[in-house]
User: Fold these one by one.
Assistant:
Number 1:
Amino acid sequence: MDLRSRYLGLELASPLVASASPLTADIETLKRLEQAGAAAVVLPSLFEEQIEHDSVDLHDTLELGAHSFGEALTYFPEMDDYNTGPGRYVEHVAAAKQALSIPVIASINGVTPGGWVRYAELLQEAGADAIELNVYAVETDAYASAASVEDRTLRLVSRVRGAVTVPLAVKVGPYYTAFANVAQRLADARADGLVLFNRFLQPDIDLETLSVKPELHLSSRDELRLPLRWIAILTGRVPISLAATSGAQTADDVVKLVLAGADAVMIASELLRRGPDLLTELTTGVSGWLEEREYASLEQAKGSMSQAACGNAQAFERAQYVRTLVEYQSAGARGQAR
Ligand SMILES: Cc1cc2nc3c(=O)[nH]c(=O)nc-3n(C[C@H](O)[C@H](O)[C@H](O)COP(=O)(O)O)c2cc1C
């Protein structure tokens, strides 16, 4: 089965991409991911705070005694075990490129359009086939309006876009009031792709120690629905590549996302649980599904269940919503509610 998919203008052998995670921090594991069927890999992020921290360190060494750490930096953990720091990160990109023949996507993670953006250029020079810019932020300033937050993100994207010529994807969270408009404006700012969606870590409170517990739970399959819906909404409407991230575990999940219109399906949690061989199973499963239904290629199936064919997406969404509530109530009356 021809599973080829174009993502960010890159020709991928299939839509299966290993998402940014500790698995992609190690060259041997990257090779295993490629052998098992990863069509591209996203390296773990290099964080704005790390880059700023590095230059503050340098500044402190040059100007002994002058301390100018921003408040945020004092919260920032020692990161070198995760992605080795800015200098070695650039080396990791070069090493990954040398070890692999599939596209290598480097990831930078930040929110403000600062001097750190020049790292995108260094990653391109190191051989990155594309840059993924992760704009992970929880806005806590009660005076920062949605418009100002969106404008800041667009300025950041424009800065990174201006710094590199390789394709640029933007990984965003789902909490926008008018996400279709944000997607369109990111396309207008010449982002080549969107990665939907960032998972926000929801900290808990430890009642014994009365401290905040940041907890990372691997994703569950239910989380697939949010990217599935938004990819179905945006496909054919906003001229931009679309990658799904969050909750994909099985071949059926991959097929659903492709039918909605996904050009790439990124996987982290299930790869962490089951290891690279998962990708072989998914490749076989997706091929089998397409063959059984007599598709000639994955491209032929892509987007066939998107909302573009339905004239009024808003009416469609409302209709689905009302229908679901009504059907639940009827099932409840018959004692079948779940
Ligand atoms: C342990 C771990 C580390 C991650 N590190 C990064 C990272 O450095 N940069 C990034 O953009 N996403 C990172 N992610 C998010 C994943 O790339 C992915 O988007 C998210 O986990 C949802 O996909 P999944 O449901 O397949 O896990 C990380 C996820 C996990 C579980």
Number 2:
Amino acid sequence: MTHLADFKIEKQYQATVKKTKRLTPENTEEIREILLEVKQPDFECQPDQSFGVLVKVTSEFGNTFHHRLYSVADLPGKENGKTLITLLVKRCSYVDDFSGELYQGVGSNYLCDRKAGDPVTITGPFDLPFTVPEDKSSNLILIGMGTGIAPFRAFVKNIYNNVKDWKGQIRLFYGARSGLELLYMNDKDGDLTNYYDEATFEAFHALSPRPHWADPIALDEAIEGRAKEIIKMLSQANTYIYVAGYGKIKDMLDKAFSGILGSREKWETRKAELIAGKKWAEIIY
Ligand SMILES: Cc1cc2nc3c(=O)[nH]c(=O)nc-3n(C[C@H](O)[C@H](O)[C@H](O)COP(=O)(O)OP(=O)(O)OC[C@H]3O[C@@H](n4cnc5c(N)ncnc54)[C@H](O)[C@@H]3O)c2cc1C
């Protein structure tokens, strides 16, 4: 397992916020799309990568760097020789179990507070485990929760815009508590809708029935609703499952896949095969 401390921060790049836009409605959890322009022309990154954001933290012990990773959320662009990268960030806060106090996540709040023109120090890029299989007839089940849509948005665009001629089936399951899906899946310029015409692509989203409550997102129901197709895909050796999002997603998926395959044992055996064949990849945070 990779730890954050394994990601090197010595090589740093200076970026500027070109755009920052709140995607979710006020009074729901805040998720922003931020476009960064990297000053140094030698910074190159790919759609299947992440990069780090460094925040200088000053405490009584001196200055330290807070380092957090963010997935590349769109195809990286170039403007005047400089790389443009998009990230999707959720403003995080946590209740301290011990004191009961609300603690604001350092990196995410820093990013959400940045305005256009502000500098941001970044690191990387770092590879994500979501590689495009060499065999274009491979099936891909992509499951993202919350900002877990970020790597898959870049992934799907990369497949249809750059890799091209994909023959396998791609199914994107996406769970959100709020109106994020409106941007990428329903808007007239929502870019994932561009692929709805592709014979191999279908996307499904699951929303919390009560967006302001901490209800679990019904991703499991969305998956169960496609049981027949998923069972067929899972019976084929060239099927990959990629998962991204918050910790909760793992239990939810184990339950859903156990349900559609008939038992926990059957799912555990199939999942072990996927892992052994490098056909299962996840980023959980
Ligand atoms: C490969 C990868 C890709 C990622 N991609 C994205 C992405 O695309 N978008 C995105 O939004 N996020 C992404 N993340 C998550 C992101 O890196 C950060 O973890 C997230 O933004 C929270 O960081 P933070 O600095 O705001 O919170 P932090 O300040 O790090 O706080 C969060 C953690 O600290 C704990 N904590 C520390 N002190 C306290 C305290 N006093 N009380 C309570 N809890 C405390 C919390 O429990 C929690 O685990 C990704 C993570 C990985 C590993």
